[in-house]
Amino acid sequence: MSGLVLKLAPKERVLINGIVIENGDRRSRFSIMTPQANVLRLRDAIHPEEVNTPVRRVCYAAQLVLSGDTDPKDARQQLLRRVEELSQVFTDADSRRVLGKATEALVAEHYYKCLKSLRSLLPREERLMAYHQ
Question: How far is Cα 101 from Cα 109, in angstroms, rounded to an integer?
């Protein structure tokens, strides 16, 4: 069993099951062996003031589960609805594939995988928003 491998830069912070951990002065690598551990690199976190688009709102909701600020049981159904709403806008094949992966991750209660999939839509959303302004 290999687990999730994290490679951290010096002084990089990561949130694991609601606890902030800061790396020391050297690069490091470690494995998280618990399958359902909630992990979020703080450099990848979306801050509340940045939650200003539909995809960012869904990403933030998934992030709140990872940070321990939202109960996964309460968030799961809402996240599934929001991903379905995104599928009404992102109709191309690649976006549908990404949204399908996000849905599969939610059904399996893998919130990090869901967040990772949804984050890949952020550049596409940015282009769409710029095009429609």
Answer: 12
